[in-house]
Design a protein that fits this description.
The chain has 456 residues and is mainly alpha-helical. It is built from 17 helices and eight strands. It has three domains: 118 residues, Cytochrome Bc1 Complex, Chain D, domain 2 (Orthogonal Bundle); 116 residues, Cytochrome Bc1 Complex, Chain D, domain 2 (Orthogonal Bundle); 120 residues, Orthogonal Bundle (Cytochrome Bc1 Complex, Chain D, domain 2). The longest helix is centred in the N-terminal third of the chain and has 40 residues. The protein is globular, with a radius of gyration of 26 Å.
Length: 456
């Protein structure tokens, strides 16, 4: 009996211990699950993963005219990742762009947007990242030229461009609008690509979401402008594009936007997709001359889809041999709607920036039938042939006359190496002037302290 009593007491004691532990585990699991969703919404995997590599171990290069920045390992590895980061250090990085050891982070990490995240959401993201298997992977060292390799200079960048403030809902707006605002500006940091930059390379908030160029791609105008933005899109088109990367009559996402859809937006709930659409549709219209004006009914497609013996231009010849079998002569897509060309910004852009990139590098899309991929033609087609087929596509499917040249294609091949260095040189000059003024301001202070020490 005594043995049974002891066994019963031990069982009761163990149950008392198991109860709270189980509750804690359940709480942790919920936090991690929420953190995973927020991490997807924040699109962390895209920047911290090399194509074909393990997620979140870093190493993705961001090539700039003045060097290369590599994304860091954000798995919970103690030695090479963020396993040794405290809650406060992690939150400080997201809100202020300051690393574990007090070093300034480069704004390629979009902390100027993440600063709007609530502390709870930031810590939920940390909980998810810390639940991942740690991977020991040293981050490659950046190769930035002077003065851009001086991290402390980012302190001055922050003074001009960082508003260290958490998101606050607008009581005059709907819950959907506020949620969409948080998703677009804090979590999703959409403006980092779709907003033009100032001379100091901060976001030009006076032209929020008016479209920009980034890494050789055009990030389109997301304002409610009817000609150059989203003003003429239906709710169904916008929500479909955000969640699947394709909208009937509007074409398909490619390049960086396809990646955003695949790794981030497609993982969001339908209510969040709707909220994001509600917010985007409310952005005041803005336009710039370079933004494409989309023609959904180009004159060339009102005629017969294909007339044998028509003008045998180089662009038509290339399209017939390399493109028509998938995209069709009427641009509706032969194998998948993702191959639609009608209504796409790419074939309405007189500079054909995204179109050139897709022809050079190919494209991929997640469809109902599985992963679809357009092959890259960069090696099989010359600069002249790609320029010709780009002009042909804009003419036929956009109803506009583009003037893409072989030199435009050559520059696209070269990427960052062909970019105009003038804006970066100007930024370096501005930084040098700021540093000079700081030194001038500190010299009297330094000499003043010296005098005090001498007299004391």
């Amino acid at each position: 009996m005594k043995t049974l009593a002891l066994a019963a007491s031990a069982l009761v004691a163990s149950l008392c211990l198991i109860g709270p532990a189980a509750a804690q585990t359940s709480t942790d699991a919920d936090l991690i699950k929420r953190g995973e969703y927020l991490t997807r919404a924040a699109d962390c995997e895209a920047c911290h993963t090399v194509e074909g590599g393990k997620a979140y171990i870093g190493g993705r290069p961001f090539t700039l005219p003045f060097g290369v920045i590599y994304s860091p390992n954000i798995t919970p590895d103690i030695k090479t990742g963020i396993g040794g980061w405290s809650d406060d250090e992690f939150v400080r990085a997201l809100h202020q762009g300051i690393g574990k050891d007090g070093e300034h982070l480069y704004p390629a990490f979009p902390y100027a947007s993440y600063t709007g995240l609530s502390r709870d959401d930031a810590l939920a993201i940390k909980a998810y990242l810390f639940s991942l298997p740690p991977v020991e992977q040293e981050t490659k060292k950046n190769t930035l030229a002077f003065p851009f390799n001086q991290r402390w200079g980012m302190a001055f960048w922050n003074l001009v461009n960082l508003v260290d403030k958490r998101f606050s809902p607008d009581p005059k707006q709907s819950d959907d609008w506020n949620r969409g605002n948080y998703l677009a500006n804090a979590l999703g940091h959409c403006g980092e690509c779709h907003t033009p930059r100032t001379l100091s390379f901060g976001l030009d908030t006076s032209r929020s979401f008016a479209g920009a160029e980034i890494e050789g791609w055009r990030a389109y105008n997301l304002t409610s402008d009817k000609d150059r933005g989203l003003g003429s899109w239906t709710d169904a088109q916008l929500e479909s594009y955000l969640s699947t990367g394709h909208a009937e009559g509007r074409g398909a996402a490619a390049g960086p936007m396809e990646e955003v859809v695949r790794l981030s937006l497609s993982q969001l709930t339908q209510p969040d997709i709707h909220a994001l659409a509600v917010y985007l549709r409310s952005i005041p219209p803005q336009s710039a001359e370079h933004d494409p004006i989309v023609n959904t009914d180009p004159p060339a497609l009102r005629e017969a889809a294909y007339v044998p013996g028509g003008p045998n231009t180089l662009g038509r010849t290339v399209f017939e041999g390399s493109c028509a079998s998938c995209h069709g002569w009427d641009g509706t897509g032969m194998q998948t709607p993702h191959a639609d060309l009608k209504g796409s910004g790419a074939v309405n852009d007189l500079q054909a920036m995204n179109l050139i990139q897709v022809v050079l590098n190919g494209a991929s899309a997640n469809t109902a039938s599985g992963q679809m991929r357009m092959p890259a033609f960069g090696k099989s087609l010359s600069d002249a042939e790609i320029a010709a087929v780009a002009n042909y596509a804009v003419d036929r499917f956009g109803g506009q006359k583009a003037s893409v040249t072989s030199d435009d294609v050559r520059k696209a091949r070269l990427g960052a190496a062909a970019l105009d260095l003038k804006p970066y040189i100007n930024a370096a000059i501005v930084l040098a002037i700021v540093l000079f003024l700081v030194v001038v301001a500190l010299v009297p202070v330094w000499f003043g302290r010296k005098r005090v020490q001498i007299h004391s």
